[in-house]
Amino acid sequence: MDIRHTVTGLYSHLEFGACLVGFLPIMAASHALHRGDPTQREPGRWMRRLGRTVGQLTPLWTFTIEGEAPPDIEAKPHVVIANHESQADPFLLSWLPWDMRWVAKEELFKPPVLGWVMTFGGDIPLRRGDGTSVRAMMAECERAIDAGISIMMFPEGTRAQNGELLRFRDGAFDLAIRTRAPVLPIAIAGTRQMRPKHSRWLGKAHACAKILPAVPTAHLHAEDIGTLRDRCRDIIAAELPDLRARYG
């Protein structure tokens, strides 16, 4: 690792910390003002502004969005899903042009500052493998969709190790069928080079999120969860080779 990369990496870490501290009081105020709102739309917008600011100030990263958002996504909530490449994925997805609440693993809510920001941004915690936590998460997601906002989930449940697309879990597709919300698949490429799993250093890369056609669920029932899950995984898997050839 050369000295320029080391200095740039250190700058990026410091810049991320400064952005967290700078946004924290604004997000705390927004959270307090909108505490009873099941959409958490305004706190979520501040969370996405934070993500975009960090991305803009990080000299190693460049982001691109491809594809068109569904024209009715702000009026008709969707369950948005994406493959999970790295910790840089949320910064890339912050550039998507619509509001949504995110489901995130509970561990992210625990550290000081970052955990407070996650809470103030209206994200929904999930403790994987805990039935009570899963039920609470699903109930809050249904409440949010009923109130008119989309939900964002990573159905792999964890970041891919070597670019392999992992098995999708049922939760996002169960939620979509329960609420009759269309599933909106997003294919991500390039973020793995930005923050490789288990690495403490950032990498220089250009990443892309490609919005794919929505999959309707209005005609589906509980017994169709597996079919919907596999269809959505196939849609993302089919898009990844071309996307990775262009973005790494």
UniProtKB/TrEMBL annotation:
InterPro entries: Plipid/glycerol_acylTrfase (IPR002123). Residues 78-191 form the Phospholipid/glycerol acyltransferase domain. SMART domains: PlsC (SM00563). CDD domains: LPLAT_AGPAT-like (cd07989). This is 1-acyl-sn-glycerol-3-phosphate acyltransferase. The keyword Acyltransferase applies. Pathway: Lipid metabolism. One of its GO terms (molecular function) is acyltransferase activity. PANTHER family: 1-ACYL-SN-GLYCEROL-3-PHOSPHATE ACYLTRANSFERASE (PTHR10434). It comes from the Bacteria. Keywords: Acyltransferase, Transferase.
